[in-house]
Fold these 2 entries.
Entry 1:
Amino acid sequence: MAREGLVEDMEEELDTIITLIGNEVAFEGYEFIFKGEATECKSCRLRNACLNLHEGSRYRLVALRDAPVHECPLHEGGVRAVEVVEAPFLVAIESRKAFRGSKVVYTPMRCGEEECPMYELCHPTGLEEGDKCTITRVVGNPPEGCPKGFSLKLVELER
């Protein structure tokens, strides 16, 4: 049993990415979606350390590194080295597909109701149609019913 915990710890460690993030938002648990390169990044000497994430992916900061803060034209207070992991997406999917451990190809709900309060859960930012994902947890029922009558469950998806 202790060996299983060790293996899980090692797997989590392998998924950790060291990157730079704004010092003002550098705290454990902070989540963000990486938007990609800004114009100011093109000539920066730290460019490779900042731009080593997948554009459109959601990340969670899991640890601060013991390293100096560097100046950055985009981040007031500079940037610092941190460890991040790709965070799961909270998504509303059809109930019949909501099984923990299932491998799915993400397909957004085809409802056309962009004003729906559930729209962001059915079409989460950073997740693209065709992304191969695993359902890591079935959270339960969504906070509201679907106006189109779809039977939905909230799940956590990881790419």
Entry 2:
Amino acid sequence: MESLLAPVLILLAVIAGVTLAARAISRRKAARSAEPAEPAITPAELARTAAAKLSEEEHRRLYALIAQGQAMAAIKLYYEATGEGLRASRDAVGALASHPQPYRGTEAPPAPVEDDEDEEPQRFPYRYRAIASKGDVTREVSSNMLNDEIYGRIRTLARSGDTEGAATALTRHSDITLKQAREFIELLDD
């Protein structure tokens, strides 16, 4: 009988240890779920916030690295420039790659962009890709004279019925013909 006493005591000690560990883990999970969740920030908002933290030179270098496909170097640059954590830097660079932001600086708010026909469109340090599709037909416009704001105005023109104005604006901010722009704008009807 004494020979069975030691293994039974060891077995009871292991069961007690596993039970205590399971309770501790469940308490931690409950405490985490009880914490108020941070408000969700959209990737576009994250990109705007991240771009505002960079100097003009850092902004230019970061987008050059993104354009070259050097994500790790871009994350390292952002990490060193802002001092944020690695995860936050990774998320910020991902948002900046998905939602390109022009450099706006911190001195003054962005000036309203006028669509004056005499002015040359601004060139950005990245290529913006706009894709439109309907059914089996897909068109893509890639240009360093487009960004979210300009493309948004083009889409608004198209949706308001001014397809010719939208096509003209698209040709002004890209290297496509007016015919190609009209075909692209036709696919934006949703």
